[in-house]
Specification:
heterodimer; A: alpha/beta; six-stranded parallel β-sheet; 15 helices; globular; B: alpha+beta; six-stranded antiparallel β-sheet; two-stranded antiparallel ribbon; 17 helices
Chain lengths: 417, 470
């Protein structure tokens, strides 16, 4: 099996398709930046071509960078099942979850990394490593590439310190690191950049849908189009507090007719997921206005339709990463009620782009406020859409990556290109 | 034979001589009359201002003599002893010739006058002028032929009817075109616009006039599109016209795009004591980021909350008093980041001094203040303005990052003390009043789009005041 393979991207979206959304000036600026990287080759390395947030970003980012004229490649490391079991443990431990990681696990991780270092035909001027799995590839720094960047997509603010220290010895050798939010990062001796994730407005999950498509989805799930819909899209996980959402909904429904839709899937690697789903179903069993929808993966159009049909979208998480479901809701100009945790705070400026809550009662109050004041809800939704347009679309993400690459060759705060 | 002929002449000499004498007398009288008439007309025309008078006199002088000869011939024939039917026949011939020469004269006269007139107003291209003249020639010729046919007792009613219907159909089909043509004449007559003028219609269309044709006005908009405005619509609209030549800048203004990236410093504060300690030692780029970040990220909100410190103190620490004091720091008052930093530190330290007894509150876990540094990349764009009109047109389309750079970043971060636009308008265009108007706009109280509109409005008003009529 080859370690790296040439993959052909069939991304339908072209850069000029984004002009009606972000404006010609934005796209022209991207071309101007990309021109300054002429002659440089960027190679992205992660652990998989499909599945997961990183692959989802790269599958769109790499073609766009190439369209801009930046020679951008994508390679993946090779690993057996045991290797990925260890990296899954690392992932959980970095998130602060208690994991038992043995010296054999570390040894296996290093062993597979070493094989990848030996076998991968690495080439490029800027080597962009994503997440912990390929972090050890930095050992090739002296031989290949001018600049090495480590992009950490996960929150490492409260990690298992042993795992962090193990990774730290590799991370410090990079020229720069990149984090998604300020409070996801840890103090490091090398340069640290802040680059938020993004959504693609032309993807199935975010593109405009016809009324017919939305109605079809509502009919499929037997949802009443006439009754206000409160929606939370997330996997069934205690950290997303689905029971808290039901309690807030029940407080609101006493006075305001509405329906609740909890849509999501269960995580295959999380045994708790089924338990949470069962608990939620039991909690909702006697209420005909609560709809629990188990949506299969790859149902982006359906999620999009539910979000577009919703009156208010919630994200009442107890802990959250960046919270791209909130970004998606804001992009669709929906009023959002969300917990003040994780990356949500970067997106929802309380009372400007949505309402933040810190409790079930706070969530219920915010829901009542929005359902009773549609004009205010519309204003928040409009602001939310504008906020995402300015800060969380893929074009901004492309711009940040281009600037990141360029900034590695310049050390001033104001760079004249 | 000769004998018979002589005999006939002897018996009828009077019948022949009378018409001949009348004819000759008529010619002589006509020559005399024409001379007198044209002398009179030349004198009369010299009193009035009609530039086409020479054409009129030159064109009608010879035909006038022809018409006199035709009239003389007609009268002479009537005096001959010829039978009535022959007299009638010759009468019709003379009448037909008269109609033909009269029509021809009118056509030539019209052609010459229209050529002069249309050339003078320069409204239509040469081929359009030719088409109009040919159309008139055909119309007059048709009328003349109809009259001659009627004179010869030919049936003209069906022909006229057909002609009338054809005209009606043509008018119906080309009614818009005809309205536009008439409007075109009116526009040409008024002489208010010409190619190269900048016009603005109350219906929103605006741009430079590229061409004025018989039916439409072609306008090039700021984004390079060509608008085709029907003459009739133009006439119905309220139009502002910039016709005077605009001042050319001594140096053109090249717009730059500014893009930014956030760099983490790894520094964070949990309370205002830590906040002020770190504030004193961080780079200017950090202070700049936290006093300008909200404008960039939330540029669509009005009014914009002023700085990240005020927001954090208010939201994470629940300290409304200090939050208000920090929010009240007017960034526009400061021309350097150092001075701005000093003021922020001063305000926080004043509050810390007051609170020593009660202790200083910490932010909840996860709500610490993270110090971030702003990295700017400045790229020259292809947009270059050489005068105020170009400046306005470009300002409408550049990105908000460009606007931000020239207004906010140039003034404070690049230590220019005033925005780039005001500097250029004053130094290179010499329009000090407008430069001052833009310089005193407080950019921190507008959204970036609002700021763009405000500057465009000021510049447009200035143009209208200084250069416009209409």
């Amino acid at each position: 099996m080859p370690l790296d393979k040439d993959i052909t991207f069939h991304l339908k979206a072209k850069l000029h398709d984004y002009i009606p959304i972000v404006g010609r000036g934005t796209i022209e600026a991207l071309y101007a930046l990309a021109e300054k990287l002429s002659g440089k080759t960027v190679v992205n390395i992660n652990s998989t071509f499909s599945g997961g947030g990183v692959a989802e970003i790269l599958i769109r980012m790499v073609p766009l960078l190439n369209q801009l004229g930046v020679d951008t490649r994508w390679m993946v490391i090779k690993g057996n099942e045991d290797f990925f079991t260890v990296t899954k443990k690392f992932h959980n431990a970095l998130h602060g979850k208690k994991e038992i990681i043995t010296p054999e696990d570390y040894a296996l991780f290093l062993d597979v990394s070493k094989k990848n270092i030996e076998e991968m035909q690495l080439a490029g001027d800027i080597v962009f490593i994503h997440d912990p799995q390929p972090v050890v590839l930095i050992s090739k720094k002296g031989e290949i590439g001018e600049k090495w960047i480590w992009r950490c997509h996960i929150d490492v603010s409260n990690p298992d310190i042993d795992v962090w220290n193990f990774l730290y010895q590799h991370v410090v050798n990079y020229d720069a690191t990149v984090f998604s939010a300020p409070n996801f990062a840890r103090k490091l001796p090398n340069r640290q950049f802040l680059i938020h994730p993004s959504i693609d407005p032309l993807s199935d999950k975010n593109k405009e849908l016809s009324e017919e498509t939305i109605d079809e989805v509502l009919n499929k799930y037997r949802l009443n189009k006439e009754k206000p819909i409160i929606l939370q899209v997330s996997r069934f996980d205690y950290l997303k507090d689905p029971v808290g959402v039901i309690e807030a909904f029940e407080m609101v429904r006493k006075n305001i007719p509405c329906q609740l839709v909890l849509a999501g899937g269960t995580a295959t690697d999380d045994p708790e997921s089924d338990k949470v789903l069962e608990e939620v179903r039991q909690r909702a069993s006697d209420n005909p206005d609560i709809h629990i929808l188990l949506i299969p993966p790859e149902s982006d159009i359906e999620i999009n339709a539910l979000q577009r049909a919703a009156t208010v979208i919630m994200q009442k998480s107890i802990k959250e990463g960046f919270g791209l479901t909130v970004t998606e809701a804001l992009w669709k100009s929906k009023p959002v009620v969300a917990s003040a945790v994780g990356g949500i705070q970067l997106q929802v400026k309380n009372k400007f782009t949505g309402l933040l809550c810190h409790s079930i009662e706070g969530a219920a109050y915010a829901l009542r406020l929005l359902l009773s004041n549609p004009e205010y809800a519309r204003w928040l939704g409009k602001n939310g859409n504008e906020h995402v347009k300015q800060n969380f679309l893929i074009t901004r993400h492309v711009k940040d990556y281009l600037l990141l690459f360029l900034s590695l060759y310049h050390y001033q705060d104001v760079i004249y290109l | 034979m000769i004998q018979k002929t002589l005999e006939w002449f002897v018996n009828n000499w009077l019948s022949l001589l009378t018409p001949a004498v009348v004819f000759i007398a008529f010619i002589v009288a006509s020559i005399w009359l024409r001379r007198k008439l044209f002398i009179y007309l030349e004198r009369a025309f010299s009193q009035i201002r009609w530039e086409e008078k020479k054409v009129f006199l030159d064109t009608t002088k010879t035909p006038f003599l022809q018409w006199c000869i035709i009239l003389g011939g007609y009268i002479s024939i009537q005096l001959t002893p010829l039978p009535v039917h022959l007299k009638t026949f010759f009468g019709k011939i003379f009448s037909s010739v008269f109609i033909l020469t009269f029509t021809w004269t009118i056509i030539i006269l019209l052609e010459r006058i229209l050529h002069l007139y249309l050339k003078k107003i320069n409204l239509f291209p040469a081929n359009t002028t030719t088409v109009i003249i040919k159309g008139l020639k055909i119309a007059f010729s048709v009328v003349a032929v109809l009259i001659i046919l009627d004179l010869w007792s030919m049936p003209v009613t069906p022909l006229m009817l057909m002609l009338f219907i054809a005209i009606l159909i043509t008018i119906f089909i080309a009614r818009d075109e005809i309205t536009n043509i008439f409007s075109g004449f009116e526009i040409a007559r008024n002489k208010l616009i010409k190619v190269g003028n900048y016009i603005k219609l109350d219906t929103g269309e605006e741009g430079y006039i590229l061409d004025i044709t018989k039916t439409n006005i072609y306008v090039k908009t700021s984004d390079g599109k060509i608008l085709l405005i029907p003459n009739s619509k133009f006439q119905r609209s309220i139009v502002t016209i910039i016709s005077k030549s605009l001042k050319q800048a001594t140096q053109p203004f090249r717009f730059s795009a500014r893009l930014h990236l956030k760099e983490l410093t790894g520094l964070k504060a949990i309370n205002i004591q830590e906040l002020v300690t770190i504030l004193k030692k961080v780079d200017n780029s950090v202070i700049y980021y936290h006093t300008h970040n909200f404008i960039e990220e939330f540029q669509y909100l009005t009014p914009q909350p002023p700085n990240d410190f005020a927001l954090w103190v208010n939201d994470a620490l629940g300290d409304q008093v200090l939050g208000e004091k920090l929010a009240n720091i007017d960034t526009f008052e400061f021309s350097t980041i150092g001075a701005l930093r000093e003021r922020i530190v001063e305000v926080i330290e004043e509050e810390i001094a007051k609170r020593q007894e009660h202790g200083i509150k910490d932010a909840p876990p996860g709500r610490e203040f993270h110090f971030i540094k702003s990295l700017s990349a400045v790229i020259p764009t292809s947009y270059v303005a050489h005068d105020l009109r170009e400046f306005i047109d470009i300002l409408r389309v550049v990105s908000l990052g460009t606007l931000y750079y020239h207004i906010l970043e140039a003034r404070l971060r690049l230590h220019k003390g005033v925005n780039d636009f005001s500097i250029w308008i004053d130094d290179c265009l010499g329009e000090k009043a407008l430069a001052d108007e833009i310089a005193i706009l407080d950019p921190y109280t507008y959204t970036l789009e609002g700021l763009r509109s405000m500057i465009i409005n000021l510049a447009e008003k200035h143009l209208e005041k200084e250069y416009a009529f209409g």
